């Protein structure tokens, strides 16, 4: 199989859209990611997968903490900004939750302390111990087969 076939196959798995954020030297850094999942209930752990070439990789190593912001249906532009798809944009405002930057209006804001990192292939998996969670009652942004989607009533 070639790289394109693998990417196309993985794109058939519908995911939520997240922005992973951290702060280093009073500057907030963020990136769009859909490689996120829960790992454990006790203790409460999540994992994010960051490409070795991503600038965010070193930032998470430096800060030792991060947030995962599950985007709401009306936050597609934020996803595009943090994926580098929107070049001319205004600065994005962040709130703080337990000293970690989070995006206001996200369906879920999760803050974490890094407990482990594992290099696998061309990515690093950061295991985060959940330190705080904030929930909103809104619809999530969905990504499927290379396109943004919305949940449909079933």
Q: What is the CA-based Rg, rounded? A: 15 Å
Number of helices: 3
Number of spatially distinct domains = 1
Strand content: over 45%
Mean pLDDT: 94
Q: State the low-pLDDT regions, or none.
A: none
The CATH C-level class name: Mainly Beta
Describe this protein's structure.
With 154 residues, this protein is of the alpha+beta class. The protein contains 3 helices and 12 strands, in the order αβββββαβαββββββ. The chain has a single domain, classed as Pnp Oxidase, Chain A, CATH 2.30.110. It has a 7-stranded antiparallel β-sheet with strand order 3-2-6-9-10-5-4. A 3-stranded antiparallel β-sheet has the order 1-11-12, with no helix packed on it. A hairpin with a 2-residue loop joins strand 7 (95-97) and strand 8 (100-102). The longest helix has 9 residues, at 55-63. The mean pLDDT is 94. Keywords: Oxidoreductase.
Summarize it.
The protein has 154 residues and is α+β, with helices and mostly antiparallel strands. It has helices at 3-10, 55-63, 76-82; strands at residues 15-16, 18-24, 27-33, 36-40, 45-51, 65-70, 95-97, 100-102, 108-120, 123-135, 141-144, 147-150.
Question: What labels would you give this structure?
Answer:
154 residues; alpha+beta; Pnp Oxidase, Chain A; three-stranded antiparallel β-sheet; 48% strand; globular
Layout of helices and strands:
Elements lengths: L2 H8 L4 E2 L1 E7 L2 E7 L2 E5 L4 E7 L3 H9 L1 E6 L5 H7 L12 E3 L2 E3 L5 E13 L2 E13 L5 E4 L2 E4 L4
Protein name: NADH-dependent flavin reductase
Enzyme class: oxidoreductase
Organism: Neobacillus rhizosphaerae
């Amino acid at each position: 199989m070639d790289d394109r076939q693998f990417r196309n196959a993985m794109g058939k798995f519908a995911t939520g859209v997240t922005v992973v954020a951290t702060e280093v030297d009073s500057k907030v850094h963020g990136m769009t990611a859909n490689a996120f999942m829960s790992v454990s209930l006790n203790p409460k752990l999540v994992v994010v997968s960051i490409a070795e070439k991503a600038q965010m990789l070193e930032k998470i190593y430096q800060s030792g903490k991060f947030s995962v912001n599950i985007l709401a249906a009306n936050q597609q532009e934020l996803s595009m900004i943090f994926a580098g798809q929107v070049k001319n944009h205004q600065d994005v405002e962040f709130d703080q939750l337990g000293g970690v930057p989070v995006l206001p209006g996200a369906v879920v804001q999760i803050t974490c302390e890094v407990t482990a990192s594992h290099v696998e292939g061309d990515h690093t998996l950061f295991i985060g111990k959940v330190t705080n969670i904030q929930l909103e009652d809104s619809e999530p942004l969905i990504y499927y087969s290379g396109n943004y989607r919305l949940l449909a009533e079933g």
